[in-house]
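With this grant's support, we have paired protein sequences with backbone structure tokens. One protein thus recorded is set out beneath this paragraph:

_____
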Amino acid sequence: MRIQVLGTSCPKCKKLSERVDDVIGELGLECEVEKVSDIKDIMALGVMMTPALAIDGEVKSTGKLLSADEIKELLQA
């Protein structure tokens, strides 16, 4: 599984990244996690608002700081 946390290092983007790392550890998942901060790369995925989360190349959330439970739901779907 490949997870991308998209954001420009704002506080909400950093918090989303922390939550993703925590949830992955809690669930014991083997994942590749990439932090994408280059605005061109973010826009190439069609994201106009950060923070955003993509799983296996598919954007699952934009413009919202997801809770740990919401992240778990997306990773287990």
Q: What stands out?
A: The chain is about 40% helix and 25% strand.
